[in-house]
From TrEMBL:
Cofactor(s) listed: FMN
Family statement drawn from the similarity comment of this UniProt entry: Belongs to the NADH:flavin oxidoreductase/NADH oxidase family.
A GO molecular-function annotation: oxidoreductase activity
Key words of the record: Fatty acid biosynthesis, Fatty acid metabolism, Flavoprotein, FMN, Lipid biosynthesis, Lipid metabolism, NADP, Oxylipin biosynthesis
A family per Pfam: Oxidored_FMN
Occurrences of domain NADH:flavin oxidoreductase/NADH oxidase N-terminal (ranges): 108-277
Organism field: Eleusine coracana subsp. coracana
Gene Ontology terms describing biological process: fatty acid biosynthetic process; oxylipin biosynthetic process
Protein name from the UniProt record: NADH:flavin oxidoreductase/NADH oxidase N-terminal domain-containing protein
Amino acid sequence: MEAKAIPLLSPYTMGRFRLSHRVVHAPLTRSRCYNSLPQEHVSLYYSQRASEGGLIIAEATGISETAQGYPNTPGIWTREQVEAWKPVVEGVHRKGGVFFCQIWHVGRASTYGFDGVEIHCAFGYLIEQFMKDSVNDRTDKYGGSVENRCRFALEVIQATADEIGSDRVGVRLSPYSNCLDCWDSDPDALGLYMIQAMNKLGVLYCSMVEPEVVKVEDKVQIPYKLLHFRKAFAGTFIVAGGYNREEGNKAISEGYTDLVAYGKWFLANPDLPKRFELNASFEQVLLPDVTVMIQAFCSEDSDVLLCFARFLFYDLVTLVHWEQNAADCREVDYEPSDSGNAGKEKISARDPWNSKEFCLRF
Ligand SMILES: Cc1cc2nc3c(=O)[nH]c(=O)nc-3n(C[C@H](O)[C@H](O)[C@H](O)COP(=O)(O)O)c2cc1C
């Protein structure tokens, strides 16, 4: 297959960081950091997806005990956790990647060897609960007007910038989302207010999520609703939400964004930039049935939740590699393929709910 120059693979300078391409690994919660500690398989996961000059944003990482909301998500508030992140960061740096840690909740921040941090102000978590008027019912200086509702977010951003420099701080926003019942009656005003304030603080990048993506005749329709935000923001703009190779190229060549973050595709295709380069085929992501997901969430059985995580976070290659002694998995040795079409190895594991075999091919 012949490599072709495409907009997604053109270089880009983001402040102090020289990116060799524009395919960003979106933050993806994986629920595999037992005791909130990133383990060996976490290192494997991120180094598999690292590339020379490629930006990787790590999964949402709690910076205090009270920040945690999901089982087995990582932390970065104890010395032990910081030490555990070090080999993960080193693995990405060894491959020449630029690595940001997405933090949620509030508090002190240091980069701990990461190149920067992304502050999670999206998807209905703590900071967004302040920002959006469907849930913020405060009557003090953190509630009411858009200025008041954004105050907390901006204080967190300011405090982080003071600590590590605004040229190492990214912010993720989702003004149009309605996650965890958190929505706003005027998402445009909210987003623009945040962006203007972030400009004043010199924030390095704004990563923004498209409104819900719909499929029409099996083809993803990107809403392309973020242009006014992109135009207003002075730093690097990153979009995410349903992008594929074609849409990513289009968004960059038309100046709709600087960089494109890929979530599910990066999970299932660790060598995603290479596959884009070669226009190779892609592994499809597997989503569990909705009923199964609900069952898992309602269950208090941690094994079920873990299985749920395995299904949802379909990067089985990493998991199977790590759990090579587990009875229901077999050892695989995965290397992203130079040809971009690794399609050789077959991995299977048992579906705990209906005992059917499911497979991912690589
Ligand atoms: C399994 C999974 C975990 C996610 N975890 C996070 C997260 O920790 N932080 C975050 O900001 N977004 C998270 N997201 C959202 C993704 O970063 C991304 O915005 C979303 O998947 C849409 O992009 P895609 O269509 O390329 O997957 C997650 C999405 C998925 C599917």
